[in-house]
Amino acid sequence: IPNEGLLLYEPITPLFTDYAKKTRYVWMPDGVSANYESDFSSLNFPDGAVLIKNFFYENSVMSFDTISFIERRVMETRIIFKRDGEWNFADYIWNDDQTEAYFSLDGATKPIQVILESGETVSFDYKVPPESQCFTCHKVNGIASPNGPKPQNLNADLEYQDGIMNQLMKWAESGYLSSDYPSDIETVVDWEDESQSLEMRVRAYLDANCSHCHMENA
């Protein structure tokens, strides 16, 4: 349940993570906001900004003795926050009772069985990355950086509690984004939208899942 000041956001094409679903939130202190730099680079966030991502499965198969049941299971809450001009990482791993999450930068492996949207049941080891692996993907020119909040991947409508609104407009309305961003942002497509061209869908998927490591300044 998000606290006051947490603003929901959702990339048009998200990163794939072992079939997990995610909820994402941004928070900033009063009086500061992010700035637009380019369509394809992450927003320039101020000190104090926090990005939060919860990883969960809606249809996790839980067993107790001989009885199995389906429930929502949160695996981890990842946080990246900016302090003194630098991004820092934190991770909170949820316990099996789903009553508490504990701070750890050591990573973990948690076996899980889930029912996919296709109806298939799969079992695998969910891996919570250690801090060193966070930096492996979250960096530009050797400096820690967020990946997801790029204007080209946020320029779409999202349903909020008070109605549907373009995400960049919502960020600006909330004071989380300077309003001087351009109106003609070159926007990625939803890679699962079959009405879009195969080329644009592939480009969107590669940008969300591969480009943060496979680029010249990674």
Describe this structure in words.
With 218 residues, this protein is mostly beta strands. The protein is 14% helix and 38% strand. Strand 11 (157-160) and strand 12 (163-166) form a beta hairpin.
Topology of this protein?
Elements: E1 7-9, E2 21-27, E3 50-64, E4 67-83, E5 86-94, E6 101-103, E7 108-115, E8 121-128, H1 131-137, E9 139-140, E10 143-144, H2 151-154, E11 157-160, E12 163-166, H3 167-173, H4 198-209
Antiparallel strand pairs: 1-2, 2-3, 3-4, 4-5, 5-6, 7-8, 9-10, 11-12
How do you describe this structure in short?
14% of the residues lie in helices and 38% in strands. The protein is mainly β.
* Cα distance spanning the termini: 34 Å
Strand segment count: 12
Query: What percentage of amino acids are in beta strands?
Result: 35-45%
Q: What is the overall pLDDT average?
A: 90
Which descriptors apply to this entry?
218 residues; mainly beta; 4 helices
